[in-house]
Specification:
- By secondary structure, the protein is mainly β.
- The chain contains no helices and 16 strands.
- Strand 3 and strand 4 form a beta hairpin.
Length: about 260
């Protein structure tokens, strides 16, 4: 049900900071795939067509679950960041144990975060986030895969230059990946200037030569009651799913599932 005002109308939040627990407003695109996996590799291409204009944290990420023998043991998220501590740009690859798989004591860091290797990229505010120069209007492919048993790597490829940058490896005993989703997590005011993130080529590798492409996504938005902004929206444009923030009005009613036009495939 919608969060209603005293007059029975859905409430909306168009201004001010999100009063959520972490101070962010988030919205997600859950991939609709013909198979649930497990997958050996997952990739997504991201373009920030309209970058932020304020010194607040924005995080655009590809998230995957780590599974072992049909059980989720953790999850990781990788993507580009607009970060006040990294004026040239940042990238992230971090994750957490699932509640059932969390070691006694919370793991090496004591907070449930997955351990990982070091990185050639300088840290911004801990091991997960690293300095990485990226440019608006340029497409970057995020890739999660396993170079060796017990290691899951994230790398980012500049599709224009072809340059591949390894972020680092997460150390987790998992046999595959599942539940891919891409999302925007915005720590800005709801009425800050608009931004636009474009997602394309959402692909999962199930086996040799078995590439599964998500041409439809299931949409979720952070509810008003949970502190979300009401003026974020997702739509399909050509070969992309587009996530926008900072609209002047509440989002338009939309179906729960969004598909790319057949002509764009």
């Amino acid at each position: 049900m919608s969060w209603l005002s005293r007059f029975g109308q859905p409430r909306s939040r168009l201004t001010g900071a999100p009063p959520s627990a972490n101070g962010a407003s988030s919205f997600h695109l859950w991939w609709v795939l013909p198979s649930t996996g497990p997958f050996s590799e997952v990739t997504a291409t991201l373009e920030i067509a309209r970058p932020p204009a304020v010194a607040r944290l924005y995080f655009w990420a590809l998230q995957v679950s780590f599974v072992q023998a049909g059980r989720e043991v953790g999850a990781g998220h990788t993507g580009l960041q607009w970060h006040p501590g990294a004026p040239g740009g940042a990238v992230n690859w971090g994750g957490y144990y699932s509640a059932e798989a969390r070691p006694a004591g919370g793991g090496p860091a004591g907070d449930g975060t997955l351990p990982g290797t070091s990185s050639v990229l300088p840290p911004v505010d801990g091991p997960h986030t690293r300095h990485f120069a990226w440019s608006a209007g340029r497409r970057y492919t995020l890739r999660v895969w396993s170079p060796a048993s017990g290691r899951w790597r994230s790398e980012v490829t500049d599709t224009e230059s072809g340059e591949v940058t390894v972020i680092r490896d997460l150390l987790v005993d998992a046999g595959g990946l599942a539940s891919p989703v891409v999302w925007s997590e915005v720590f800005a005011r709801c009425d800050d200037p608009p931004t636009e993130a474009r997602w394309s080529r959402l692909q999962a590798l199930e086996g040799p030569g078995q590439v599964r492409t998500a041409t439809a996504v299931s949409l979720t938005y952070q509810a008003y009651a949970d502190g979300g902004c009401s003026n974020t929206e997702t739509y399909a444009d050509g070969d992309c799913f587009v996530q926008v923030t900072g609209l002047q009005a509440p989002r338009r009613p939309a179906s729960d599932v969004l598909s790319l036009a057949a002509s764009a495939l």
